[in-house]
Amino acid sequence: MNKDYDYIVAGAGCAGMSLLMRMASDSYFSSKKILVVDADDKSLNDRTWCFWEKESDIFEPIVHHVWEELDFFSTHFSTVLDIAPYQYKMIRGIDFYAYVKNTIASMPNIEWRKASVKRLLGATELLATQTTSTHQITAGIELNDGTTAFASYVFSSILFDPIPATSNDYHFLQHFTGWEIETSSPVFNPGRAVFMDFRVSQEHGTTFMYVLPTSATTALVEYTLFTESLLPDEVYENAIRDYIKSELKIQNYSIMHREKGVIPMTTFSFPRYQGNHIYIGIAGGEAKASSGYAFKSIQKRTAAIVNALKQGKSLEINKTFSEKKGQLYDAVLLHVLHYQKMPGDEIFAAIFKGNKASSVLSFLDNESSLFTDLKIMSSVPTGIFLPAALQEMVKQAKR
Ligand SMILES: Cc1cc2nc3c(=O)[nH]c(=O)nc-3n(C[C@H](O)[C@H](O)[C@H](O)COP(=O)(O)OP(=O)(O)OC[C@H]3O[C@@H](n4cnc5c(N)ncnc54)[C@H](O)[C@@H]3O)c2cc1C
To answer: Which of 117, 282, 291 to mutate to test the pocket of ligand 1 (most atoms within 8 A of CB)?
Structure first.
């Protein structure tokens, strides 16, 4: 291949395609040569994204369902969360991939290549290429077939190596299995979703169900855990089956679709860039360590990248104060869970009991004010959380 591009998007999943869609929607990029490389053709409905937002963003046309109200259940506290001014939204992977692929299909400046990226090229190799190139070569990739491609920037969402198991960090996983079910008679309220239902066994650690009804007869039911290790497949399957029968009281249904996933919830500090190799998505540390949510932070980051490119600003964008603050809060939560100082279901129940749902959602988005943060922190036992916070602050200061 050995061709030059302005930008290479290595990995076209959520982050790569979000960046592409933002570039494709902006005439500034219509003269830029862009190469997209993904090992997969992205034609499967391999995940469903849910997220909350106040205003619509570029993926509004493919939002599959919206809820204004969410249920929160636990054995300690249950309520209907009034999430205004937020709405809780769902986008299906298959719609997302098709939308972006259709948008870029007619754009001659964007080239899609189905291939596996072996690695990002090192500084010496890039320097050697510079002399023969018409573009400013500051980034590049090598594919598994040995060919290379060069650009001014590579945006990579590929996790080439496992996340280092550093002893100083917490390494939780959000792992889940979901069934999209269809019932023969109407049983669901499509206007209200179950955000978290902790009334399930907590024997493996922080565990909850969520139920996302998209009509009176269809819903996605997911069994989700925040723990440090995975479980055998049958544990997830049995838990969903039991929940549908005993909690949702549904006897007759068919499984339309299954999804499963594992998302890192770690305090490991992912680098955001190395030279002009810019790491995005989970590989850029965009999965929130305390919740596993990544869709919205990916949108914020890709929007910031596009703005910086247009303004000719450096892409060496480090974490903002709010992001660093959020990182500390995430570390405190993982600390408390890791040392089993308080069970996760009790923590979430205390937080939702003591605060407005919209404040909690802004807190989880790293968008809350210091006043809100203090209010949320005062809703959990300070005897447990304050020492954890002090220890995590010392750890962060030493990084
Ligand atoms: C099942 C599931 C459900 C989720 N639900 C939510 C949710 O509801 N809300 C939320 O906020 N977050 C959710 N997440 C977390 C997060 O939003 C997703 O994982 C999201 O897809 C992360 O985006 P990404 O671009 O980092 O990774 P991906 O979307 O996984 O994209 C990475 C891309 O890189 C490609 N790739 C990998 N290796 C190579 C290689 N060597 N060469 C070429 N291509 C390669 C892959 O094919 C893939 O297309 C979910 C995750 C999963 C797995």
So the answer is: 282
Cα angle at 255 between 252 and 257, to 5 degrees? 160
Residues in the chain: 399
Nearest CA to ligand 1 atom 26: 281
Same domain (yes/no): 137, 29:
yes
Within-domain flag for 351: yes
Task: Give strand pairing partners of 120.
Answer: 141
Ligand 1 contacts CB of residue 294 (under 6 A): yes
Each of the 399 residues of the chain gets a pLDDT tens digit; together they read 456 999 999 999 999 999 999 999 999 999 999 999 999 999 999 999 999 999 999 999 999 999 999 999 999 999 999 999 999 999 999 999 999 999 999 999 999 999 999 999 987 788 777 656 666 679 999 999 999 999 999 999 999 998 888 878 999 999 999 999 999 999 999 999 999 999 999 999 999 999 999 999 999 999 999 999 999 999 999 999 999 999 999 999 999 999 999 999 999 999 999 999 999 999 999 999 999 999 999 999 999 999 999 999 999 878 889 999 999 999 999 999 999 999 999 999 999 999 999 999 999 999 999 999 999 999 999 999 999 999 999 998 887
Q: Give a yes or no: residue 316 inside a domain.
A: no
- Same domain for 111 and 145, yes or no, is yes
Say whether both 19 and 91 belong to one domain.
yes
Domain that holds residue 235: 171-265
- Domain assignment present for residue 73? The answer is no
Instruction: Please tell me the distance from the alpha carbon of residue 9 to that of residue 17, in angstroms, as a whole number.
Output: 8
How many Å lie between the centroid of ligand 1 and the Cα of residue 53? 20
> Which two tokens mark 313?
């600003």
- Closest Cα to atom 28 of ligand 1: 13
Residues 279 and 300 both lie in one domain: yes
Nearest CA to ligand 1 atom 23: 14
Does 238 contact ligand 1 (Cβ within 6 A)?
no
Residues 112, 156, single domain; the answer is yes
Residue 227, strand partner residues: 173
* Dist. CA 44 → ligand 1 center (Å): 12
DSSP secondary structure string for all residues of 258-307: EEEEEEEEE-----SEETTEEE-GGGGT-S-TTT---HHHHHHHHHHHHH
Q: Whose Cα sits closest to atom 46 in ligand 1?
A: 11
Binding site membership of 51 for ligand 1 (Cβ less than 6 Å): yes
Q: How many domains does the chain have?
A: 3
Asked if residue 20 has its Cβ within 6 Å of ligand 1, the reply is no
- Within this chain, do residues 285 and 146 fall inside the same structural domain, yes or no? yes
Whether 81 is covered by a domain: the verdict is no
